[in-house]
Amino acid sequence: MSVQPLLLLGILIFYSIIFYLNGIFIKVILKSFNKKISILESFYVSIISSLGNYFLPMRGGAVIRSVYLKKKFEFSYEHFVSTLYGYYIIVFLVNAFVGLVSLIVITIKYDVVSIPLYLFFGGLFVSMLVLSFIKFPVKKIKGSKNKIVDKVLSIIRNILDGWNMIVENKRLLVSLILITLIAFVVGVGLFYIEFKALGIDVTVIKVLLYNCLSGVSLLVSITPGSLGIREGIFSITSDILGISNEQIMQLALLDRGVMLSCLVGLFVGLWALMGIIKRKLSVSSK
Question: What are the domain boundaries of the chain?
Answer without folding.
Answer: 5-278
